[in-house]
């Protein structure tokens, strides 16, 4: 509507100008008030206009495959040139700060999926699957969102709903991390939130009520369950009748056969991440790199499909502490590594590796430490209930009409 009004106003102004010089009684007397001088016409050549055509040989592809990590090099080169010129104009004061919408950090990067091997922190399991890495995570200086996992999960879930059947590129995932972290910092400035959340880790209800994104949770399609501890039946009697993590996963397995795509925000141990469930594949999207392996500082996407596998790690690997070298940089294995793979015991394959990843990689070590504390009678039932609980919040987009004021 704004564009239509502005265009009508522009047309009206143009007509008024025309009428000032137009005599309906004597149309031949219509004259232009001031003719441009020859000097002004010639001075046009001094303007910095460039109409050069790129000197590319005939048949040169638009997408340079040698630069697959950063995207189409030829296409992106034009964008970077425009970016550099706009930055130069901004620095010279020829344009106001609002006209320069891009910054040097906004590179157009597609990113790549890489087949890699992960080792659990306790050294007992090995996962082979595809991983997609961003350039930053929520703790990076470019994001400054150390406690922003809840807001980031909502931001990413909303993006997935608005862009069905696709995943973000690297530059898009970076942008989501920065935007979600910015929203989190805004919430931290609220006096009410300062008193209620001293550690600045907001719960999901608070973030949704603040309408950070037009997103809602469907309670009847959501699940709350608990991890089980081994050899401690008497200690967990208060959890009888509650859903276990395994039973939740069975319910997800039944639902995924009847739907094309579902987006969950998963909450466990004061951290939130996104679970994207499709018929043939499941994705975990997490903005805290440390969840992947110690020392990782990049948000990541894990793909779990028919090619994903989890093995029991060799005994010699179990004896040594797992460190940041748990992820191999090589995409292919050599003959020696293939021979080692053939002797490993396969635990599971396919989408079920996502379930085992959550249990054996994310939760195994904290649960084992919790069990040790319980045996030493260091911990009570109240925190035990909290530490064992895992929640799957089924998300859906809100009616955007109810969020017009928030997003206008």
From TrEMBL:
<feature type="compositionally biased region" description="Polar residues">
    <location>
        <begin position="325"/>
        <end position="335"/>
    </location>
</feature>
<feature type="region of interest" description="Disordered">
    <location>
        <begin position="321"/>
        <end position="342"/>
    </location>
</feature>
<protein>
    <submittedName>
        <fullName>Uncharacterized protein</fullName>
    </submittedName>
</protein>
């Amino acid at each position: 509507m704004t564009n239509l009004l502005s265009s009508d106003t522009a047309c009206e102004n143009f007509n008024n100008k025309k009428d000032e010089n137009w005599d309906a009684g004597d149309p031949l007397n219509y004259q232009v008030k001031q003719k441009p001088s020859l000097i002004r016409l010639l001075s046009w050549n001094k303007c910095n206009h460039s109409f050069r055509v790129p000197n590319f040989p005939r048949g040169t592809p638009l997408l340079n495959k040698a630069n697959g990590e950063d995207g189409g090099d030829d296409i992106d080169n034009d964008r970077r040139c425009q970016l550099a010129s706009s930055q130069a104009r901004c620095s010279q004061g020829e344009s106001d700060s609002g006209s320069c919408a891009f910054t040097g950090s906004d590179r157009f990067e597609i990113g790549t999926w890489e087949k890699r091997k992960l080792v659990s922190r306790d050294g007992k399991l090995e996962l082979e699957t595809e991983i997609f890495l961003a350039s930053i995570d929520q703790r990076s200086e470019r994001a400054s969102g150390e406690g922003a996992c809840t807001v980031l999960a909502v931001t990413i879930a909303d993006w997935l709903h608005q862009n069905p059947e696709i995943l973000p590129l690297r530059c898009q995932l970076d942008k989501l991390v920065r935007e979600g972290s910015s929203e989190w910092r805004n919430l931290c400035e609220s006096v009410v939130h300062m008193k209620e959340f001293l550690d600045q880790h907001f719960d999901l209800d608070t973030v949704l009520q603040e309408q950070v994104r037009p997103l809602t949770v469907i309670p009847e399609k959501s699940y709350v369950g608990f991890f089980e501890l081994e050899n401690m039946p008497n200690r967990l009697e208060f959890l009888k009748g509650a859903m276990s993590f395994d039973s939740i996963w069975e319910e997800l397995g039944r639902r995924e056969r009847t739907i094309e795509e579902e987006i969950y925000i998963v909450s466990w141990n004061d951290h939130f991440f996104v679970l994207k469930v499709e018929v043939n594949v499941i994705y975990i999207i997490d903005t805290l790199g440390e969840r992947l392996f110690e020392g990782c500082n990049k948000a990541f996407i894990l793909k779990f499909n028919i090619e994903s596998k989890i093995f029991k790690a060799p005994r010699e690997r179990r004896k040594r502490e797992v460190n940041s070298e748990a992820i191999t940089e090589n995409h292919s294995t050599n003959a020696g590594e293939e021979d080692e793979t053939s002797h490993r015991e396969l635990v599971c394959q396919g989408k079920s590796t996502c379930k085992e990843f959550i249990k054996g990689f994310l939760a195994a070590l904290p649960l084992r430490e919790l069990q040790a504390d319980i045996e030493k009678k260091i911990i009570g039932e109240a925190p035990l209930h909290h530490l064992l609980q895992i929640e799957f919040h089924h998300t859906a987009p809100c009616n955007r009409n109810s969020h017009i004021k928030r997003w206008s």
